Amino acid sequence: MLKRLKRQLLKTGLDRLALLYLGLLLIWLSLRLIWFDQFWWLGLLNTFAFWWMLPLVLVMPWVLWRRQWWRLAACALPLVLVLHWYGPLFLPSFAAPAVAAPSAATVKVMSFNILINNRNYDAIADAIRQEDPDIVGFQELRPEHIAELQTRLGAVYPYGMFSPEHNPFNNGVNRVGVISRIPIQQQDKLPPPLAERGIQVKFEIEDKPLALWVTHFSPSNLYVFPLSQWASLWQQSHGQRMEQAQQVASAAEMDTPLVMLCDCNMSPTTAPYEVLGQSLTDSFRRVGWGLGPTRVIRRRWPVLRVDYVWHNQGVRPVEAHVGTDGASDHLPVVATLRLETIPGQKQ
Fold it and tell me: What is the pLDDT of residue 96?
């Protein structure tokens, strides 16, 4: 009798917990549909959307077993969004062939936020050597990083460009840069606000032009500030990311193949990502597999995908994946890309 009572109490408790979870989930998703990222707390919830959806893995089997059909119906909207957001990442991709044609102009690129206080230069170099990309774009560079990487990798990557050291935005640190085994044909500044943490270089690969941007969108870093400052800090950083995304989207309309290597400080379920996705393609989402998280906490647990290889219609992704640890709080993202002719582009 006592065991039966305990089981009944457990079932009742789990039923109420499932109901509470579904209610809160539906409230959040309804607010998201109405306002998206307009409020700081809503933007923060949207950033971590995957983790709020994860309990569905337990809740749905429970309500099925309990035959709670109305609660199962409440799972419909979250389930549709889960399939929309994450389903393509676990399905075979037919967007590109497994390998590019031998005659195609291909390039392998890496975007790597190496962490501004990371002094494990050997680990950084090893992470690059293991992937052997043609071009590496860096975020959070210090002058010491540049010197140490040139010492370790200069023989393989003799060409490079780095954002100005005397930039009032970064006080000489937190720069972006490129190293390459392919000669750099031209280097230009990006327009504001991208110029603060962004550079543009141009290559010629098998007679095909390539414009490559390396950018670092504004971070939030709320965890280092008191809770009382979160609202103003999020509004400021989110506004900057939206402005940067809009600038990219407008500037990306070009008749040259374009690749952007970006620590965008946003997850794929946020408004700036939606803005970028209107003009550029996320290589990993197109041909990668899995969730692909790149932001690491405590140097061991990847929790969010915030690093990207974006490209325009002049580029076709062949393969994309997350690279190996380089002692940073970010994992590099790597993509092999094929350069193609944009419709209307002069040969």
Answer: 44
